[in-house]
Amino acid sequence: MIIGASVKRKEDPRLLQGRGRFVGDARLPGMLHAAITRSPHAHAVIRAIDTSAARRAPGVAMVATAADLGAVPAIPVRLGPDASFLPFLQRPMAHDRVRYVGEPVAMIVATDRYAAEDAADLVDVAYEPLPAVATAEQALAAGAPALHGPGNLAARLDVSVGDADRAMAAAEIRVRQRLVVQRHTAVPLETRGLMAAYDAASGILTVWGPTKVPHFNRRVLANLLGWSVDRLHFLEPDVGGGFGVRGEFYPEDFLIPWAAARLGRPVMWVEDRREHLVATNHSREQIHDVEIGATRDGRLIALIDDITVDMGAYLRTHGVTVPELTAAMLPGPYGIPHYRCRIACALTNKTPTGTYRSPGRYEGNFVRERMMDLLAETLELDPVVIRERNFIPQASMPYTVGTTALGHETVYDTGDYAATLAAAVRDVGYERARQKQADARAAGRYLGIGVGCFVEKSGPGPWEMARVECTPEGRAVVYSGAASVGQGIETVLAQICAEELRLPLDAVTVVHGDTAVVPDGVGAWGSRATVVGGTATLLAAREVRATLLQRAAARLEAAVGDLTLDDGRVYVRGAPDRGIPVGELASPAVVATQVYTAAHMTYPYGAHVAIVEVDRETGGVEIIDYAIAYDVGRAVNPKLVEGQLVGGLAQGIGGALLEDLVYDESAQPLAVTFMDYLLPTSVEMPRRLSVRILEEAPTPLNPLGVKGAGEGGTAAAGAAIANAVADALRPLGVQITRLPLSPDRLVMLIRRAR
Length: 754
Hints:
Layout: H1 12-16, E1 32-38, E2 44-50, H2 52-56, E3 60-65, H3 66-69, E4 97-98, E5 104-110, H4 113-120, E6 124-129, H5 136-140, E7 153-161, H6 164-170, E8 173-181, E9 193-199, E10 204-208, H7 214-225, E11 232-235, H8 251-263, E12 267-270, H9 273-279, E13 286-294, E14 300-310, H10 321-329, E15 338-346, H11 361-379, H12 383-388, E16 399-405, E17 408-412, H13 417-427, H14 430-442, E18 446-455, E19 463-470, E20 476-480, H15 489-501, E21 508-512, H16 529-556, E22 563-566, E23 569-572, E24 575-581, H17 582-585, E25 590-597, E26 605-614, E27 621-631, H18 638-657, E28 688-694, H19 712-715, H20 717-728, H21 743-753
Parallel strand pairs: 1-12, 10-11, 14-15, 20-21, 27-28
Antiparallel strand pairs: 1-5, 2-4, 2-6, 3-5, 7-15, 8-13, 9-10, 9-12, 13-14, 16-17, 18-26, 19-20, 19-25, 22-23, 23-24, 26-27
Helix pairs in contact: 7-8, 10-11, 11-20, 15-16, 18-20
């Protein structure tokens, strides 16, 4: 069996040997380099732009402003587009007003990056500063400066299941709290970059660099340029991390190809880290005013949440998907009969936001799981007991939550939520840990145990395509519309194809991210590549297998049902000497194309348990022990799933303890380098980590039975760590109501509690 085996990644040899090809490695004769002049103001009117000095600078081939671009349409929304969003969309370059620090104002193209950067500093922009809106609550207050004509409210989302107000009024126990998740972002190792080259002879514009959704970006660029899509060729290189922020269509995704087409020469642009921290999508920032109602024995009756979300200065390609996912998934694994959520999506003078690993759920999981612990504390119940008492039972699957997201009704397909919590609790030795906690408290040390349970979403459609070709050499090639963002898609799709065609893994090649050979695709986002792309690959491989068996049946004068395909040969069952190599049967080549439509999403789920020690004097948090139990339905490659979970946990820890994109009252960013924006290192990772991959509840929604694995390591990290820190500091009377739990914040809370 190849599916289910932890085979080595097919991508790794070239990456480990330094043969990976990232966008920054691309070189073409006559290549130029671009730099962007960005606004230093959070909000200002552009009175004039003088580019004369920049144009005279050595090596400069082009200086462009919005006036040079002409009437370019705004960048459209990819997920959940709505006509009401149009006034809030961003154009590739600021016209008459800038709305956040980092917004593009001019582009310089020169012979090298140094010359381009020097010339960018020579662009003289006359700004008239305007009052800035620094927080979502300010944006929605009466009399706030308006960022756009319709105002600062981009959207209002209302979700209601049952009668939450009446149920809450009748609840025996009510717990209310304001909980806050900070603004932070993905900061992949490799920043964004593009190279574009125009061939005047063919009229083809080739773009290197777009990952995640290359076919979507190709269509957007064609529309913005006013070209037919067949004139654009997109190539996806290797990528140094994606995590939601890379690969969306940003202003630079228009500017660099436009410049290459105008100049007739290749143009390269790679952002530096400061640009990344002010120009690439931020995420997360939400304020929750939440209340839960329960019976005296801890049965949940109602959940009400009023959420204010800071969307930044514009709506980018995700629209309001992130808050929509918060609203849809906030009930989590618990049976809550009455639920109401109201969300105000506010525009501020900050960098626009988008998705980041477990978007909307990281925030919602923190809020819901903190409230579960507060309820347990109110009722003097163990946090594990309160959860066990409220889990949706396995017998209720499929379970309709009553919400929708990404065009899908939220219907949990399969799940045994109690089993994942039991596994994680067992892996940290929960009862022993409670005894150690009591002993530590007696000795003046502050140990805490925190739990976070969650349901994820994965496999959003609407579809994905795959073409499988079996060649006369006895090999197979998979052409997939899915993309690679570092998750090992070449390995997983090869495993699925090799399993179906009974070929060695080395005999399968996976091709993706080249729009010249893969005509269309939906890409890699939302933990969908294996679920949707893998299923399309399976169906195409099955069709190829059927054709091979039919050809063999004719050659061997045997019924198809009497044939076996194994180890690159088809032979008559019971007579292995009567066989034909697959290569002979694949002459001419056998080709099959399948488009798999995903009518419903799948819902993996899991539990995190954290044991921490907090230093009362420094506010430092050490994660002593950590357990993740995660059910993916079926693991195509368990080692890859484990890697996803461990890597995701590192990012979740960063959001829980360190990372914070702070702005001052004038909406100036204060964290624009890694001196200010703190990332987790190996020191912050758990001293002991247990990762348990469960396959107890395969989904019936696809023939592989798989659910996504990309986001479960991040999803509940903030929740579990916050609960553990709150548990540790409970003797001091410290309340944990916001992330991150940085040392300075914890020291302040401890001092206040004293």
